[in-house]
Amino acid sequence: MRQSQLFTKTRKEAPKDEVSKNAQLLIRAGFVHKEMAGVYSFLPLGLRVMNRISNIIREEMNLLGAQEVLLTVLQDKNIWVTAGKWDDKVVDNWFKTKLKNETEVGLGYSHEAELTNLLKDYVRSWRDLPLYIYQIQTKFRNESRAKSGIMRGREFLMKDMYSFSRTQEEHASFYEKAKAAYFNVYKRVGIGEQTYITSSSGGSFSKFSDEFQTVTDAGEDVIYVCEKCRQAINDEIFKEVSACPLCDNKDLMKKKAVEVGNIFNLGVNFSEPLDLSFADETSVKKSVIMGCYGIGIGRLMGTVVDVFADEKGIIWPKEIAPFDVHLTPIFDKEGKVKPAADALYADLVSKGISVLYDDRDIRPGEKFADSDLIGIPLRVIMSEKTMAENILEAIDRTTGEVKRVPVSDIERIIK
Ligand code: ATP
Ligand code: MG
């Protein structure tokens, strides 16, 4: 991508009403555009990051044997009434609307009920199970506070997976595998070290749940961490036990954190009221045992920004950066550097490297400030000076370390 063609531009200031660090940086760097509180559009750079995170999640869910679907945003009120979750007193963040004929519909805040109902058309016997189904889709929630940027949207991209098992053992075995897959996701996205599995009380769907909490000052939650077990408990559980659930350690560290994922055992809470059942090997009718597994993709992206940013801007971990390299040549008056940089850009792209090429005719200081703000982890500089020595300068965004690299070696360094 030639930066001169990118329609977004970096800006000095974020909108005055934007109070969260993640959205301030993402807006200034041109990744997202704020439409209103809790509602953000994703621009080319932001979408690239979002897609890379989504693909990591996809790979990990597919490895679990899960199948991807895309369910509807408009949801049938009757299904949610049957599941006991339509009433505003039970679920307080529904966006609801009406068809022309006055029929009420909901905008999906979650999809347990809809998917359970859908599976009634496909599940008959024990042979049809287990099933693991997920989607990556925009959710709508009328959050009362939306002050955490893309960490708490009123519409936001979520990966939600649902498991449908025949026995408690089958459910438990998948649940453990899903836990491991979640850790893989956080590790690959770059926040493995900061993320703790956290026992918590389960909210609207089940009694207990396992949250994945990433330690950051921007977090809205408080957790208590046992460093020895890398296990945490949330605020509500702490009031009851105030010790590590694994080793009984009472020396827990209080931290602010953000919930980047959440997995629940749903039991038969949905399958019973919605009558999703199967005939077992002895033809006995049984309710399907369910679990649900969510990851907020926008929230994950905001968390990464928050955890790694420095005073100059964003720093993306390599696996989710919008580009592999930011090529920021310093053009000379005689016009010798430009064609050489064009050729280097074409060469890198032809080798399958994704490059943001700052081909704009602006001051080097401006280029570098933009590059720091955008946060691609590796910057490559070509100038009259480097050309004379037949080298390139490769700069690490995190450490600022400058490496002098022979031109013939640059592909290896990048990879
Ligand atoms: P929270 O307690 O933060 O409101 P939740 O318990 O309502 O989260 P779930 O219903 O379990 O969240 O949703 C699954 C995941 O979706 C969460 O773990 C979180 O990562 C993400 N998520 C939830 N609400 C939002 C939101 N408003 N904006 C962005 N991501 C969200
Ligand atoms: Mg919530």
| Architecture per CATH nomenclature, i.e. the level-2 architecture of the largest domain | 2-Layer Sandwich
Across the major sheet, the strand order is 9-10-13-11-12
| Count of discrete alpha- or pi-helical segments spanning 4 or more residues | 11
Proportion of beta-strand residues: 25-35%
**Average pLDDT, to the nearest integer?**
96
Question: Strand tally, please?
Answer: 21
User: Oligomerization state of this entry?
Assistant: single chain
CATH class of the largest domain: Alpha Beta
Mind telling me the C-alpha Rg? 24 Å
Structural class: alpha+beta
Strand count, sense and closure of the main sheet?
5 strands, mixed, barrel
What are the distinct ligands in this entry? adenosine-5'-triphosphate, magnesium ion
Tally of distinct domains: 2
Identify low-pLDDT runs: none
From the spread of the alpha carbons, the general shape counts as elongated
End-to-end CA span: 18 Å
Q: What is the helix content? A: 25-40%
Q: Could you name the CATH homologous superfamily of the largest domain?
A: Bira Bifunctional Protein, Domain 2
User: Which fold name fills CATH's third level, the topology of the largest domain?
Assistant: BirA Bifunctional Protein, domain 2
